[in-house]
Amino acid sequence: MNKTTAAKTLLTVAPLLEQFCEALKKANHANAIRSFNGTIDTLALCDKIIEQTLRADSLHNLKIKIQRLIDSLPRRESQVLHSHFLDQQTTTKTAEDLNVTQRTVFRRLKTAVDDFAQKLDTIAINSFTFDELLRRNRWISAEYKRQQQLANHRSGVFGTDNGCAL
How many domains does the chain have? Predict the structure, then answer.
């Protein structure tokens, strides 16, 4: 697991975690209603509802952990991560809001993502737990692959991953 790529993946999917949890809850509700019509294996459906509930709880907890980790970073880093990833603002809008240059936003993002990546262990994200997260959530896995491709592209273009294309 590349920690920086994992960090960018988690930061990118963080705003979507709550929406995904809500979708799982709605699916559970629909499944519960379907179980009353008698044509479905109720035991199997109950197992599915329990599995989806646990998955939703796990993703909700992940969102809380990500938010707490962001909040634990120095104020400047926390602000730029929150604005860029959680609020999904452009670097131009983030620079405007923080009254700094766009280049400063890029530098702060690079530093903040690196610091976030180094602290992943504090929220129990290691190679094993991250791989399990990817295995259970194809949509997060797809984002991780996209982040890997971006990192590989930046390495090829700039010689190193300089963080400019966050």
Answer: 1
